[in-house]
Amino acid sequence: MIDVLIIGSGGAGLTAALAAKDAGASVAVAGKAYPTNSQTSMAQGGMNAALGNVGEDDIGSHIADTIKSAKGLCDEVMVKHMCENAPGTIAWLESLGVPFSRLDNGKSGTQTVAQRQMGGASAKRACYAQDYTGLKILHTLYDTCLKEEIDFLDEHYLLNLITEEGTVKGATFLEIRTGEVKQISARSVIIATGGYGALYHGSTTNAYGSTGDGVAAVLRAGGAVSDMEFIQFHPTALKHSSILVSESARGEGGYLVNEKGERFVDELKPRDEVARAIFGQIQEGQRVFLDVRHLGEEKLMELLPQEVELCKLHEHVDPAKELIPIQPVAHYTMGGIDVDQGLGVHGIKGCFAVGECSNAKVHGANRLGGNSLLEITVFGKLAGENATKHAADASSKPADDAQQQKDTEAVEALFAQKEIVNFYPYREKLGNLLYEKVGIVRDNAQLQDALKEVTAMQEMQKAMGIVDQSRANNQNLIEFLEFQNALLLAPTIITSAIDRDESRGAHYKVGFEQEDETHKKHTLIQWKKEATCR
Amino acid sequence: MQIKILRSETDTHQLYTLPAGEIPLLNALSYIKETQDATLTFSAGCRASVCGTCAVRVNGREELACAYKVKPGDIIEPLQYHPVLRDLKVDKHRAKETLLKSTAWLHTPQEASLTHSDEKLSERQTDCILCDSCYSACPVYAVNPDFLGPFALTRAYRYSTDKRESSTKNIIDNIQSNGVWDCTLCGECTAVCPKGIDPKMDITMLRGLSVQEGYQDPSFATQSFGTPDFGGGGFGFDPNAGF
Ligand SMILES: Cc1cc2nc3c(=O)[nH]c(=O)nc-3n(C[C@H](O)[C@H](O)[C@H](O)COP(=O)(O)OP(=O)(O)OC[C@H]3O[C@@H](n4cnc5c(N)ncnc54)[C@H](O)[C@@H]3O)c2cc1C
Ligand code: SF4
Ligand code: SF4
Ligand code: FES
């Protein structure tokens, strides 16, 4: 029986693994793909830390900016912990060899790390590595995990948590390569499976796999989720492919213009405000563009090489010479698994959650760009340490194989089930439905509609199934399981949005355009375990 | 438009019809899976050329499915020299093994004063997304499956040039066997890399560093010049010996 089982091998999972190992635990990291395939690779803009390398900055301002953007919904203790640990975390990443972009200032260590401005920040605070910040941090963490001989279980798809009397005992997985359901017992479990932005299929910057599997597993196991309605829309995604153009494009001086060439919003405002301003323009029939031409080709290639390439490839525009057509799309999920200040999952002992899947209440109603890479590394460390501490006192009596048997039967039932309705078009329908009715601007009538449609889809799900009968490497099966999780989470987003009769951060509701004191609280959802665990 | 995809179960190229128009190969594969054939198996993640999941071969050349625009008559196959798990999905675990053997990480970190030009020293190399395209293109794998290979060596080079590494010798020691000298410098890796990385050049640089550490080309060493072998015992080539 291992001490700490980590589920998810993105930036959060890898940091947690290194911390747990360092604290003396035996560790295994299970993920549905390979570690470097994780969505963390996609982060472009940067990672916040008040180093003050370019102009004045201090931790107090970082805390203040974060609290301001959270619109009354963050836990200030957690924000303080995150921001105070930011410079130390950059120093740690520096010691692992993260190739940050640099300043020529003759100094040493992290004092030479270049910093740029992101929306909602009062200083140039985001440390970056050109526009490959996530990629370079993720790969350096991975290299370090290899150095530390961390044990990886790749292509292991999390099915369910195993719990006994409210305490976690491990988890069940579908081993994708063989098709077998297996059980891994552990004294502590850390969930680091990423967000649920991919529910907005087709209208999201996220990777295909960000389907909220870990969040759904926690719900099924009797744990709580919170603030599910807070979905951040990124103002600038490429219009036709929904691929992100990093906020740093605006931070470096890019403008937003409409068809008439008019600017209509201060580009450096927080994401929710900029996204709504763009959405307003689109509703008026305007197309919206990002203009970075004045930065010049050389500067663009230096600061945003990835974006330049993606614009050429997917939109056929050269940002040095042409306007970039953009639209706001779903980007980040502030809500997720409800955790306490030690990242322990509300309702399941011994289970921790970290990264985009968890709601550590540092982002509140609206996340600041650059605070997520920070969260996954600072809190990844905390999760690893706390899970190790918990493991030291936890019972080492493994659970029986009841959950494994249940899940084996459930998978067998899926193979036996006739496919009457193809689920793929419904995955897309769900994405469109959420974008249109649970999107940037919401209203209660539309939310009610959306709930009805999702409930109908859940009914319809009984007629859906898989066509592929292969046991090994069945991606059709994995995608169906992901879709089931999406259908399970969608109503939690919609009902939370219905309950919140106010506008706050990323949640904006027509008829309730102001913040309302009575709603200055977290929305919490928890089910009774017996009724829901398959 | 029609394209052919190699299916592993039958080991034949299956013909699929796509709507006309310019789309990325990844979208075409998803379209086929969603509407025509749910058993077609491939891997994908970010669809933005950065997660390294989706590399395949198109008409015999490595491409990222999310970045390649489909053309009529294209023939799609899995990467070479990787065990095929199913259709276009291959086993990439070898990657981890070669990275492990190359010990591509910081061994003995020290604080350094890094500049903008130091950043540039490894900027390209650290763009690597571990897509495995270069492994698939490297002819050495046809004869030596134990070769460390282009990206592991590129990564070893990246760490060995890092000023934060106080002792590069460990890395250099670990890339001698089945490593830098086994490359034929054919440049196939460089030609296919979707991130514009030049592993061939990195390997050449590593050869230079190896020589500085006292190693020499083993194929050169095994040639007999009728003189005693200076290979062992501290008689290696000394770069500071006044040449
Ligand atoms: C395009 C883009 C740009 C961004 N730019 C920035 C930025 O500039 N700055 C910033 O701070 N943030 C940015 N973000 C946000 C940030 O990248 C993410 O929030 C962060 O990387 C999440 O890390 P994570 O480790 O929690 O999850 P992920 O990196 O998503 O990793 C999740 C892991 O869980 C695994 N997993 C998921 N489901 C299962 C399952 N069922 N079974 C087993 N394993 C599973 C996955 O395979 C993966 O390994 C960006 C996000 C996107 C999409
Ligand atoms: S070096 Fe290039 S081709 Fe090789 S794995 Fe890295 S990105 Fe892919
Ligand atoms: S240059 Fe070397 S590493 Fe690259 S493909 Fe040729 S033999 Fe392989
Ligand atoms: S899907 Fe990520 S590189 Fe193609």
Can you walk me through this structure?
The complex is a heterodimer of chains A (534) and B (243). In chain A, helix 13 (424-437) packs antiparallel against helix 14 (444-460) and helix 13 (424-437) runs parallel beside helix 15 (475-499). Helices cover 37% and strands 17% of the residues of chain A. Chain A has 534 residues and is an alpha/beta fold. Chain B has 243 residues and is an alpha+beta fold. Chain B is built from ten helices and seven strands. Chain B has helices spanning 25-35, 93-102, 116-123, 133-137, 140-143, 150-160, 169-173, 188-192, 199-212, 218-222; strands at residues 2-7, 12-17, 55-58, 61-64, 75-77, 84-86, 89-90. In chain B, strand 6 and strand 7 (89-90) form a beta hairpin. In chain B, helix 2 (93-102) runs parallel beside helix 6 (150-160). The model of chain B is unreliable at 226-243 (pLDDT under 50). Classes of the chains: A alpha/beta (534), B alpha+beta (243). At the A-B interface, helix 4, helix 5 and helix 10 of A face helix 1, helix 2, helix 3 and helix 6 of B. The structure holds flavin-adenine dinucleotide (FAD), iron/sulfur cluster (SF4) (2 copies) and FE2/S2 (inorganic) cluster. FE2/S2 (inorganic) cluster (FES) binds next to loops of chain B.
